[in-house]
Specification:
Layout (H helix, E strand, L loop, with lengths): L1 H5 L5 H9 L10 H11 L2 H7 L13 H11 L25 E2 L1 H8 L7 E8 L3 H5 L2 E2 L3 E2 L3 H9 L11 E7 L6 H15 L11 E4 L2 H8 L4 E2 L12 H11 L1
Parallel strand pairs: 1-6, 2-4, 2-5, 5-6
Antiparallel strand pairs: 3-7
Helix pairs in contact: 8-9
Family: Belongs to the MPI phosphatase family.
Catalytic activity: O-phospho-L-tyrosyl-[protein] + H2O = L-tyrosyl-[protein] + phosphate
GO molecular function, one term: protein tyrosine phosphatase activity
């Protein structure tokens, strides 16, 4: 009965009656024997379906690019060079391909709760200078243009003195909706281009969910000056126009 139950060519509708009639004489034709004879004398397509070897036809060779894609898909929770898992707890954000952290997690980093594991944390404020000057997270560097961030991070990459510790980069803008995520992708793209896959200068990148707009009301003491200047401030319309032209 166990062998009949495991037979891949036998449908469940046939298995059930056989299990109920175990004492049936062995020399009589059973649905199983009839099915087996049919599979032996059947058409080539039926024989192929019954042969376990057919499963081997599914294997194939993969190109280097396909292998890289498979690695990326299989290690979504690992940092960019697949060497270890992400250190900071992440949350869902607007862009599924990026790793977001909450304002609470940002404060945990700022207050040294991960100092035993992080040697350097670079907070990249992607807002325009007049926004940054109106109030920013303590220690953040203002890099609003692609050439700025490329010069700061990639011309002379930051390397930890202690190989067991990490260098992480956290991007944000006003809402972390467009400018911050775009800059994060730019750094990863440029980093990939100047390294042999999968090595990276900065394998661990994050985006601050909600940006400065969400961070400031909750943690003003971690900002300097303790203020918030929006991008569409009435007094800086000309500055906004100028920087938007530059970024095109």
């Amino acid at each position: 009965c166990r062998q009949l139950f495991r037979s891949p060519s036998m449908p469940s509708s046939i298995i059930r009656p056989i299990l109920k009639r175990i004492d049936r004489p062995q020399d009589r034709d059973t649905p199983v024997k009839t099915k087996r004879r049919r599979s032996v004398a059947g058409t080539p397509s039926e024989e192929a379906a019954a042969e376990p070897v057919a499963w081997l036809l599914r294997s194939r060779s993969f190109s280097h690019e396909e292998i890289e894609n498979l690695l990326a898909n299989d290690h979504q929770e690992l940092i960019g060079d697949f060497s270890k898992a992400y250190l900071l707890q992440t949350v869902e954000g607007k862009h599924q391909d990026l790793k977001y952290i909450s304002p609470e997690m940002m404060v945990a980093v700022l207050t040294g709760q991960f100092s035993s594991l992080i040697e350097s944390c670079v907070i990249v404020d992607c807002r325009y200078p007049y926004e940054y000057e109106g109030g920013h997270i303590k220690g953040a560097v203002n890099l609003p243009m692609e050439q700025d961030v490329e010069e700061f991070l990639l011309k002379k990459p930051i390397v930890p003195f202690d190989a067991s510790k990490r260098v992480i980069v956290i991007f944000h803008c006003e809402f972390s909706s467009e400018r911050g995520p775009r800059m994060c992708r730019f750094v990863r793209e440029k980093d990939r281009a100047c390294n042999e896959y999968p090595h990276l200068h900065y394998p661990e990148l994050y985006v601050l969910k909600g940006g400065y707009r969400e961070f400031f009301p909750q943690y003003q003491t971690h900002c300097e000056p303790q203020d918030y200047r929006p991008m569409h401030h009435e007094d800086f319309k000309e500055d906004l126009r100028k920087f938007r032209l530059k970024s095109r």
